[in-house]
Specification:
Elements lengths: L1 H13 L21 H23 L3 H6 L1 H27 L5 H27 L3 H15 L1 H13 L6 H27 L7
Helix pairs in contact: 1-2, 2-4, 4-5, 5-6, 5-8, 6-8, 7-8
């Protein structure tokens, strides 16, 4: 299922290649297109986020970890580097320009800050060989990565079930798109991680 949704995200990303500024999400962001740093951050975020989705997806494969630990680490470093130095900072910058006013901006800025923080802590725990804690923070980090998918899913569900002004929908999904993911992530950590033998 996750692979299918990642494929859908790739299809959405393709619409912006090589440098289309009047398609998809950008149709409602035309006032910001002329702002160089916002435009650069947007395209960086769009193109680099696909690597984050894919690399993060592989990190939860027990078979890969057991049979190809070097590949697991290499993909993990790609994920971490992408979040910490490319996609995360670009998302953080974009958060300051989010539609829907202060409420939406607070939602997206919180998402970006927590995404970078959880990813950084996951890396630190791995370096310290505290692999149980590393797994927990990777779960939290990837839950926020998946907000790229769940945000769109919630937007589709809301707009097709109830009538709300577009900006109100945006304000709702700015929070619902990732807070729900964290709730699920904390549930997984609480119910699954304690069963794993201590590292």
């Amino acid at each position: 299922m996750l692979a299918f949704f990642c494929w859908l995200m790739a299809a959405i990303t393709m619409a912006y290649i090589p440098y289309n500024t009047d398609v998809g999400f950008l149709r409602i962001k035309q006032e910001y297109i002329a702002i160089d740093h916002w435009r650069i951050a947007f395209f960086i975020h769009v193109y680099a986020s696909m690597w984050v989705l894919f690399a993060g997806f592989t990190q939860f494969s027990k078979r890969l970890l057991r049979n190809q630990p070097k590949l697991h680490r290499a993909l993990g470093y790609i994920y971490v580097a992408d979040v910490l130095f490319i996609t995360g900072p670009a998302g953080l910058l974009m958060g300051f320009y989010a539609n829907g006013g202060l409420l939406s901006r607070a939602g997206f800025l919180s998402l970006a800050v927590l995404w970078i923080l959880f990813t950084a802590v996951a890396l630190i725990k791995a370096k310290q060989k505290k692999f149980k804690a590393h797994r927990k923070f990777m779960i939290l980090s990837y839950a926020l990565t998946l907000s790229a998918i769940t945000l769109r899913a919630w937007k589709y569900l809301i707009t097709n079930t109830i009538t709300l002004p577009p900006m109100d929908v945006y304000r709702v999904v700015a929070w619902l798109g990732w807070v729900g993911n964290l709730v699920v992530a904390f549930w997984i950590i609480k119910t699954k991680i304690p069963r794993i033998k201590k590292d």
